[in-house]
């Protein structure tokens, strides 16, 4: 059901114009590939779709819970909630990054560099890589790209990583996922130097994120984006009850660790949770990264809760030229009558992910060159 | 207030007979040194003692909540709860380890080895190291010890670690904490080879513990001991609500990660939590590692909850020859009228910690030598 936060990223950034990308998203959908859900064990995913969570197991049909959140119809729902405008915050963040990079270039001549390794010829992956490249160019980050054939060996990929590890012009390295099935993803990702792991997925980074008194070199982009939205909207975290829905390695789990670092009292709701509604209703801050369309109903929310919706889920829409539209994990129009603030989908967390990737690349160049 | 789980370990194992150790524990108490509480930031510790949690900020005086849990008085409270007998489980675990080590020796000639590095001359640390050595000897693990003076350099400590890293007779390395103040603990601990990090505190191990689809090489001993108690008492974890009180790097946080790996729905209560009682009362499983005497009252527990009490806290006791006695975080006699099962203090989690250290050393030798 779900599409990776990344998948949505460029739909949002580019306004969903690309037909090729739309096709690739549907393909992703068909394959049930999702950065969020892929990392859940299969039984867990199964449970999310089979349990009596009062959600349908197929794309939702009821239009009242499926409206594009930026449509005039939805805007009219915004009676009591403040809209957390990720699109505009992400734009601001990118402008700040661009300005800082310009200053660094002017004063030191250093140009930040991001390397992306793409294996195989998946159309969706090609789109993501192209969009990352464009985003880098926009803010003044040099991008380096290696394209390898589907049947290349693990060693070839690791050799390229190794070259980028040693290349002082490269400050961040991304290996575009998914990798072909014959490759050991863990082994390949572990080859990326921790100093250049701008995705922040290295277990050493995650360990440091979990530990008091330690600091990760990089924080995973989507969780970092969620926290940045809370920060920029002055939403207090310390002492608040927070519920994170979903526990994937790339969103749910690191988001919970980040909230805890900020002294929230955190509960993680997942596919084995027996009473997700009851637990979620206790939260002052709800961050949903389940990848299930309209999972979180208005009745799940405490009055005045702040809602960050990481889910990006395609649902059938005969009125849409693409035959589907994107909705979050949260039933937006119900939620915005209960929540004090809420992110729309699209235009909420999605645009923040790539902004945080650029931010991590900037942090990396500053750390490597000891710049303030 | 709190004493490290480790501090209690040998009191329990040795029946609290050692006067030298009793003195050192009081010293620890005075210094407020605790493996649990030390890793909380100072303001957090302050809060635990100043907030209106209906607990006193000094050792508790009321005798009805301060009875040694193995006393006949307390046993008479055990009307509705099953006692989770850590002492007897730990004995069983040690016998199993001993038997397995004997088989390994007989069939391969390999002798498991544990190295301990002690810096300085703290009496308490000397006691712990001596007791670890004794426990190793009991099960057939060879122990290696290096004693360095208080004023040695970081480099000397790291050199010794390096020698043990390269010594094939050594399968586990422990650096006894705390280290002298002039040393960088993180730097020193990171020097221990992850393959021999039997304490499981390396961030790479913690990261793997947090991530789905990854496995840590070692699980920290006290959290592993808690889980082993639940397992041996056939207490179901999957789908249950679990509350962990305390979020230290060595107990609370890894315990929460372990419970989540077993598909519990986990909430972490800490010093900034506004309504710890209300949250704890929702839990089917409560694991308390706050280091605050009698923090958890009967009213904090749901009827039928399972309670694992990691806290070991000295409280004044004029009737005790030592002038104090040890109690847990949980008000035992109140809790055992509500809980379905509960660990006593002492005799609950304490004895499990060293058993798990021996277990980790055995796992290490099996992994290094590819033994089944």
From TrEMBL, chains A, B:
Keywords: Hydrolase, Multifunctional enzyme, NADP, One-carbon metabolism, Oxidoreductase, Photorespiration. Coiled coil: none annotated. InterPro entries: Aminoacid_DH-like_N_sf, NAD(P)-bd_dom_sf, THF_DH/CycHdrlase, THF_DH/CycHdrlase_cat_dom, THF_DH/CycHdrlase_CS, THF_DH/CycHdrlase_NAD-bd_dom. Residues 220-367 form the Tetrahydrofolate dehydrogenase/cyclohydrolase NAD(P)-binding domain. Pathway: One-carbon metabolism; tetrahydrofolate interconversion. The keyword Oxidoreductase applies. It catalyses: (6R)-5,10-methenyltetrahydrofolate + H2O = (6R)-10-formyltetrahydrofolate + H(+); (6R)-5,10-methylene-5,6,7,8-tetrahydrofolate + NADP(+) = (6R)-5,10-methenyltetrahydrofolate + NADPH. One of its GO terms (biological process) is tetrahydrofolate interconversion. GO terms for molecular function: methenyltetrahydrofolate cyclohydrolase activity; methylenetetrahydrofolate dehydrogenase (NADP+) activity. The keyword Oxidoreductase applies. PANTHER family: C-1-TETRAHYDROFOLATE SYNTHASE, CYTOPLASMIC, C-1-TETRAHYDROFOLATE SYNTHASE, CYTOPLASMIC-RELATED. Homodimer. Catalyzes the oxidation of 5,10-methylenetetrahydrofolate to 5,10-methenyltetrahydrofolate and then the hydrolysis of 5,10-methenyltetrahydrofolate to 10-formyltetrahydrofolate. Belongs to the tetrahydrofolate dehydrogenase/cyclohydrolase family. This is Uncharacterized protein.
């Amino acid at each position: 059901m779900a599409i990776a936060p990344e998948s949505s990223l460029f739909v949002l950034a580019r306004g969903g114009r690309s037909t090729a990308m739309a096709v690739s998203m549907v393909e992703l959908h068909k394959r049930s590939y999702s950065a969020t859900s892929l990392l859940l064990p299969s039984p867990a995913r199964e449970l999310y779709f089979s349990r009596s969570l009062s959600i349908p197991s197929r794309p939702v049909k009821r239009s009242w819970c499926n409206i594009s959140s930026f449509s005039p119809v939805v805007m009219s729902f915004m009676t009591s909630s403040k809209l957390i405008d990720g699109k505009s915050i992400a734009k601001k963040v990118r402008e700040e990054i661009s300005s800082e990079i310009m200053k660094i270039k002017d004063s030191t001549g250093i140009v930040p560099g991001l390397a992306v390794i793409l294996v195989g010829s998946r159309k969706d992956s090609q789109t993501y890589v192209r969009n990352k490249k464009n985003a880098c160019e926009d803010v003044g980050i040099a991008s380096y790209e290696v394209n390898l054939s589907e049947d290349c060996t693990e060693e070839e990929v690791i050799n390229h990583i190794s070259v980028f590890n040693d290349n002082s012009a490269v400050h961040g390295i991304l290996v575009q996922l998914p990798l072909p099935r014959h490759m050991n993803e863990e082994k390949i990702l572990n080859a990326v130097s921790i100093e250049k792991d701008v995705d922040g997925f290295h277990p050493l980074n995650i360990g440091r994120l979990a530990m008091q008194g330690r600091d990760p070199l990089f924080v995973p982009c989507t969780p970092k984006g969620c926290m940045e939205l809370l920060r920029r909207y002055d939403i207090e975290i310390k002492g608040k009850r927070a519920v994170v829905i979903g526990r994937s390695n790339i969103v749910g789990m690191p988001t919970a660790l980040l909230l805890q670092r900020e002294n929230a009292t955190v509960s993680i709701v997942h596919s084995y949770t027996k009473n997700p509604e009851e637990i979620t209703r206790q939260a002052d801050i709800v961050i949903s990264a389940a990848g299930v369309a309209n999972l979180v109903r208005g009745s799940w929310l405490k009055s005045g809760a702040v809602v960050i919706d990481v889910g990006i889920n395609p649902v059938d829409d005969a009125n849409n030229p693409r035959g589907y539209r994107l909705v979050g994990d949260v039933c937006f129009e119900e939620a915005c009558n209960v929540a004090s603030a809420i992110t729309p989908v699209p235009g909420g967390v999605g645009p923040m992910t790539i902004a945080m990737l650029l931010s991590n690349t900037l942090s990396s160049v500053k750390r490597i060159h000891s710049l303030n």
